[in-house]
Amino acid sequence: MKKSKRIPGKLLMGALILFFYAPIIYMIVFSFNEGRSLTVFSGFSLKWYRHMLESKDMMEALYTTFSIAILATLISTVVGTVSAIGLSKSKKVIREAVEQMNNLPIMNPDIVTAIGLMLLFITFQVEKGYLTMLLAHVAFCIPYVILSVMPKVRSLDPNLADAAMDLGATPIQALFKVIVPQITPGIISGALIAFTMSVDDFIISYFVTGQGVKNLSIMVYTMSKRINPSINAVSTMVVVIITLSLLLINLLPLILENYTEKGRRRRKIFWAATGAAAVALIGVFVFKGGLEEERKPYQGQVLKIYCPGEYMGENVIPVFEEMTGARVITEFFDSNEQMYIKVANGEAYDILIPSDYMIERLISEKMLQPLQQEKIMNSDLLVEEALGLPYDPENRYSIPYFWGSVGIVYDSTKVSAEELEEKGYEIFLDTKYKSDIYLYDSERDSFMIALKALGYSMNTDSEEELQQAYDWLASCVTTMDAEIVTDEIIDNMAQGRKALGIVYSGDGAYIMSENEDMGYFEPLEGTNLWCDAMVIPTNAQNPDLAHEFMNYLCSYEAAYDNSDFVGYTSPNEEVMEELYSEEGTYAGINAYIPRSGYEKDESFNYNAETKKIISNLWSKVKIVASNSGN
Asked: Across residues 18-38, what is the average pLDDT?
């Protein structure tokens, strides 16, 4: 009789464990990578851990994450346990109704809970920040604790508490000495679930936070917009902390079992030493806080900045805070449209950093205040090509932050510069490169390349021309199997994974600095010459400090740190030339210096009707791409 061939249980379990833990192991390994790449290991280094420890934002995010997780766990565990015990003594109708209500937030999509909590805080005019995030975490953790504790409560003998009180125990003693010990496993389980949910949460935290308060989930989401290997380091740190916590929880019962008189004495010494250290630490902070510091011009004032994520040099804000004595709060947006919604709804910021077309819209809707040019003396250091652009011809409302173009990044081992000059954007319809091209997931820039390829202005309002552009893009994603991506194109093209892609010039500069085979080309049909700029909203709370920050960002030191770190072209002429020089970070990399003065290059104008049409057509393009398997 032949034995049936089965996959051994241990082998299957090993495969499952490998499947679940391989990404974590991969992340840990690349946290020690010398280079910036997230896919190619170039040597062992601790530089990203050093960078993490030196980063004020990352350390604050780490503190916020675990302080909120611990507080939310403690509060929700107490409230959830008391609620579960109370429900067990309630009438059946009330108990069942409350249990159904308790299940609702667990089954609800996080986005619904997040929006509900956000609207609640807005309605009652509660300023969003650490407190609102903590309250939100407590709110969504309590149902999990109740769900975990309830089965243990149900399994109790209902007469247990009464028996304890008959023997002389008070209700409090009956609760803590009789009931709680019996349901401890359920309480611990609920607490662990609450802690995990709090540490893991992103969506709810993202909608209920403010004042620059960020947990690690928000921080990692922001950092993932551009290549930042510190993501791996900070994520590894979280894995280590959670692993140590789990080990402590599992080893603690064993330690308590061996609790001897000798161990008790050692613990007394330990806790005495810990208490002394805590007192000494508090004393240091009190003493430090009591020292009289040099008074600075903006001491104690707060500057609120709203900008794209990973769009500012590492030392820009720390140096400004040290120089002025002010505190800077930065919040990040994913798109200009997201930024507009918050500002239009009355959210107060001192500085915004939107794109050109959005600035034009904000000006037209009288949502920006004119700048006091005499307070921005360093504006004289800016290059002419980034000034006087159509969205703000006299720079009455804006000061350039970064500028650049949109172009084609290409692998010179697969594509020649001559071929690009000959075909321009039409190269994206050349079947020779089928399945070997990237399109960028930006409705404006994707329609720009289609309109330019067809010989039209990228600011056209002709529905017929826009329909032709749609047909061009639909053909590209179907016949060419073009892959529509976002910022992952940066690392992918740096590794030479495709022949062609559409990128912003600053990203092209980074790609070329990482891979000498990569090139950047601005087609002769013209391109988008864009500019992101600093503006001050009409409801800014601290415009004087905002002007000071603008003036500082125009200076050589701040502009150099900004451009060197981010990779986009600085409007400061000296910085731009130095970074492009033979000794500069972007020496000889043409993507760093955008083409200027070319008549077919344009800047985007804001047109609400045209934008709506383009948005709808781009959604259709993505549906076509999805249906074709891209």
From this structure: 81
